[in-house]
Amino acid sequence: MRPMDSRLSALLLTFLMLASVMVMQTPVPESPLADGESVDVQFTSGRGTSSSYLSAGGSNAQSIDANHIAALGSGGWVIGSEYNTSLTFGTNTLQPTSPYGSAYGEFFLAVADDTGVWRSVFGADHSYGAGGLSFLTDVAVDVSGDIAISGYFYGEIAFPNAQGQDIILANTNS
Fold it and tell me: What is the pLDDT along the chain (174 residues), one digit of tens a residue?
């Protein structure tokens, strides 16, 4: 009876060693991802009737592009970019102040509410001191509704007293 116990023990040990190496898991079929229409609501009430979003807010002669657009948490939009001629958004007008002429840009921020009415337009004073140029690189709105911008400038610029959010510009040269 002893030889049978040895063979059974050897077989049992072999089975246990193989079982520890092999994965004892039943395969679970992967479910495919749903490929359907997006249900996100896209608000477009701030658009003008023309093909360009900004042409509803200014004259045909202005040289601007809406490079940076962010949604406000309370409804509406903030846009920012550079301009080099007079801007008129609703009843708000912004004149270029850089002494370097219309070949270069100045940044601006404009705010429209959720019905498409332009509420404000803001830019820096580029005629301060020797004058300067400014360029906007990004616009963002945080969860509390504060508008943050990033960009860079050359020369001297000033921010006149105006209604609106506080902003910070820093010129760091490395």
Answer: 555 677 888 888 888 877 777 766 666 777 776 766 666 655 544 444 444 444 444 444 445 667 888 999 888 889 888 887 788 888 888 888 888 766 667 888 888 888 888 888 888 888 877 788 888 888 988 888 888 888 888 887 776 655 555 555 555 555
23 is written with which tokens?
A: 């994965």
**What is the distance between the alpha carbons of residues 79 and 133, in angstroms, rounded to a whole number?**
19
Point out which residues pair with 147 in neighbouring strands: 141
Q: Measure the CA–CA gap between 106 and 81, rounded to whole angstroms.
A: 8
Tokens found for residue 117 = 């009415």
CA gap 142, 46 in Å, rounded: 20
Q: Which string of DSSP letters, residue by residue, matches 81-144?
A: EEESS-EEETTEEE----TT-TTS-EEEEEEE-TTS-EEEEE--BTTSTT-EEEEEEEEEE-TT
